[in-house]
Design brief:
434 Repressor (Amino-terminal Domain); Jelly Rolls; 4-stranded antiparallel beta sheet
């Protein structure tokens, strides 16, 4: 069994690519990620950034959350906190904890701890065929959805519109914690 999240993510990327019968070159073309980087990710030799994972997931026509769930989760009705997979973006330092169990329920709940002064962008392809809700649990979050700017505070909840390039920003001087709820294909 693979022993770390980078290896599990790499294995999942390879599986998704092979399920589609794509070469490294084909995935590189569809995702705008270099063949060399995809090769390193698939072998667990590189820690992928959130942007890179979003691009690969978009090429597979799934959300980054779905790609990560497929890499991280076992089936079951209960997912204890100590078993919840945590991934840390090597660029921004944000910590992503998958809270919901992988079950027949087509909902993923993800907790994000976002450091102050950081931002993370995702292409519109990350949001295709999915409904997303962002709920700020603590702190402040600025969410840029295409041309729209949403300034959110603790307790605010936003449903995303049609797929758009999006950026999460923590413009404050303290951490922000928010949940992303994703309605996925079952």
């Amino acid at each position: 069994m693979l022993d770390n999240i980078d290896e599990r993510l790499g294995a999942r990327v390879r599986i998704e690519r092979e399920l589609r019968g794509w070469s490294l070159t084909e995935l590189a073309k569809r995702s705008s990620v270099s063949r060399a980087m995809i090769h390193k990710v698939e072998r667990g030799e590189a820690s992928p950034t959130a942007m890179l994972l979003a691009r690969l997931a978009g090429a597979f026509e799934m959300s980054m959350s779905t790609l990560m769930v497929r890499a991280e989760m076992q089936e079951g009705m209960l997912l204890r906190k100590g078993e919840q997979p945590v991934w840390i973006d090597p660029v921004t330092g944000y910590a992503r904890r998958h809270v919901s169990p992988r079950s027949a329920t087509p909902i993923d709940v993800i907790n994000i701890d976002f450091p102050p002064g950081k931002e993370s962008s995702f292409p519109a392809a990350s949001y295709i065929n999915r409904k997303h809700i962002i709920w700020v649990l603590d702190g402040e979050l600025v969410f840029l959805e295409g041309e729209a700017r949403h300034e959110m505070k603790e307790g605010d909840c936003l449903e995303l519109g049609p797929p758009n390039d999006c950026t999460f920003c923590n413009e404050s001087d303290r951490p922000c914690r928010y949940a992303v709820i994703v309605l996925r294909d079952s």
